Amino acid sequence: MKMNKKVLASFIRSILLLSLVVGVSSCKNQKKLTELSENKEDQIEEVDESNEEESLEENTEGPEEVGSTDSDESDSKKREIKKEPTKEAKLTDYFTTISQASSTAAANGQIQDALQMFSNSSAPVLIVIYKSGGQPSYDQPTTIEKYLNYLKDTKNKAAQVEEIVYDSNGKIKELVLRK
User: At what angle do helices 87-99 and 144-154 cross, to 10 degrees?
Assistant: First the structure.
């Protein structure tokens, strides 16, 4: 009987020691997880703030509610921000789609869609071909309609967007590209 009491006491001590170790390590892991999640939230908030500034320029809807703390609402805003591409990204996608279109009709449809982003079809397009000491050298100026048709006809890779100038309605009135 005495031996059973000693074994039982030893067993209980072992269980208590094991639970203490597990509890301490779990607290440390929980603390690490909390710190990681706070860091991620800070990073997400920084990204969201920069995206919100971009989306405010593009947003044509009414003002958003200020001071709301509902987490579901903030989650939906994050999803909306991530889903909404910038005008530069949309324009780049149009360039790629037009240059890789399978048919002339498909390319013409994409051209018409892309032209909706511009104040008019004769919006100037400047293409930087060389930069020396900060001074750019431009190719012959063209219009957006001519440039889009050039992409359609030649199937060349589009130049990268360097600068976009908007009019008061948020439409593109001038475009600077870089080869």
Answer: 40
> At how many degrees (to 10) do helices 104-115 and 87-99 cross?
160
CB atoms within 10 A of CB 37: 10
pTM comes to 0.53
Domain boundaries, the chain: 1-46, 87-178
Closest CA to 161 of 150, 146, 172: 172
Amino acid present at 142: T
Q: What does the pLDDT look like over 81-103, one tens digit per residue?
A: 556 678 888 999 999 999 999 99
59 HSE (CA, 13 A, CB side): 13
Cα 91 to Cα 68: distance, rounded to the nearest angstrom = 33
